[in-house]
Amino acid sequence: MRCTLGVDIGTSSSKGVLVDATGAIVASATRAHRVSRPRTGWVEMDADVWWEEFTQLSRELLAAAPEAQVAGVGVSGMGPCILLADADDRPVREAILYGVDTRAGDQIERLTAELGEDEIVRVGGSSLTSQAGGPKIVWIADEEPTAWSRAERLFMPASWLVRRLTGAYVLDHQSASQVSPLYDIDREAWHDEWWQRYAPTIAQPELRWAGDIAGAVTADAAAATGIPIGTPVITGTIDAWAEAVSVGAHGTGDLMLMYGTTMFLVATGSETLRSPSMWTTAGAFAGTRNLAGGLSTSGALTAWLADLTGADYGQLLAEAVESGAGARGLLMLPYFAGERTPIQDPNARGVIAGLTLAHTRGDLYRAALEATALGVRHNVETMRAAGADIRRIVAVGGGTQGALWLQVVSDVTGLVQQVPETTLGASYGAAFLAAKATAEHGDAPAIEDWNPVARTITPDPGARARYDALFDRYLRLYDATATVSHELAADQRGAAA
């Protein structure tokens, strides 16, 4: 049985899947893990865990289907992450994670002053924010000179796995475009002048597209993983883009909405759209461009409430349904870990407005769901204002398993959402890219055949007026509380130090 294996390294877990030539899932496996938060605004992870979990997942998947013949391996991972390694591929420190890690504020200000914001946007497509990889590289150079003195290579989770599996030193264009300001998006190449200025001791990874074959499994990697020597391995990409591939949401006019620990949005087009408050990136495939955004908390917020109240999700969902639209007069800002797009404010903080002694945990849970939906609407409206042509919404991720969250997002945004049959996520997309790259006799699979639409969520027109008013208050609440939130954020940093 011809299969492809896909593994994704996520924020809270690593997931693996073995898929046959028709797209059917033969086996799946998961390994939960935790990131490290050594200080307020810092989010890190030990890269050795990525490889360890990959080897565990691959062996478990292959043991579950001994008849499988692995034709190719696909990889993806959270990002953009910054992992620097020495000449022997030993990490010089833990990997610094994507936009949820906000440590490089001083470096963002410095690089913006040195290079000019207009020039940064011209070259890379976006202003520098906590999502950008370049300032985090500079942070290591500034703050950890001993680690910096050993650094010679740059990796992200997917490219780290490729290196361990094949020995290839590559990075996909999509990931590279988020190492701003070191990538030129129109040239689809590293920006040599700025690379030599800010990362002179780091060798530039060779640039490939996500579905390109990077190399083949080595003897050492085969011994560690159980995958046969010589099996092709694709270059891979960041998880949100692999997830978009997994549901076919990578064509012009598509918007992928990923429900997870954080919320992620990827709009695809053929033109480079530049927006000061969103992320302009290369696409997963040649000739495509993306305008992307992300909420810093979504599923993390509901998990926090579940832990805080001691209630299980079933109870909270039932009580949130009973609460009804508007959460009986509550309004929440979901900025419990700062916020990424479109406000780009790492010092924003969560706010719950309208609380009374009569409110219940169900009202709070409903308000949290509505807060993430309001954040999605803010992103979508900002994308459209920048010129994004959004024609189709595809919902993916673990949060699509529940009906209420999906319905709230459709009601708040007024958008129809399509939910595919398989919402396994980025690992499934990585397996598809591997199947496409290794297809025999040009018989490449189509994702529409692998993963058709299973259901459609339509907005309730009766909720529109209420949510339009709530959205207006949502925007005004941030403006009204930002100064106090910033002061509190400064106090929190001082306490942590």
List the SSEs and their pairings.
Blueprint: E1 2-9, E2 13-20, E3 25-32, E4 44-45, H1 47-64, E5 69-77, E6 83-85, E7 95-96, H2 105-115, H3 117-124, H4 134-143, H5 145-150, E8 153-155, H6 157-166, E9 170-172, H7 173-176, E10 183-184, E11 189-190, H8 192-198, E12 206-208, E13 213-216, H9 219-225, E14 232-234, E15 237-238, H10 239-246, E16 254-259, E17 263-269, E18 279-282, E19 289-295, H11 299-309, H12 313-323, E20 331-333, E21 351-353, H13 361-385, E22 392-396, H14 403-413, E23 417-420, H15 426-437, H16 447-450, E24 453-457, H17 464-496
Polypeptide structure, described:
- By secondary structure, the protein is of the alpha+beta class.
- The protein folds into 2 domains: 2-240, Nucleotidyltransferase, domain 5; 249-421 and 460-497, ATPase, nucleotide binding domain (Nucleotidyltransferase, domain 5, 2-Layer Sandwich), CATH 3.30.420.
- It contains 17 helices and 24 strands.
- The strands form 9 sheets. The chain has a 5-stranded mixed β-sheet with strand order 3-2-1-5-15, sandwiched between helices.
- A hairpin with a 4-residue loop joins strand 10 and strand 11.
- The longest helix has 33 residues, at 464-496.
- The chain starts with a strand and ends with a helix.
- The mean pLDDT is 95.
- Keywords: Carbohydrate metabolism, Kinase, Transferase, Xylose metabolism.
- Residues 4-243 form the Carbohydrate kinase FGGY N-terminal domain.
- Pfam families: FGGY_C, FGGY_N.
- Residues 256-437 form the Carbohydrate kinase FGGY C-terminal domain.
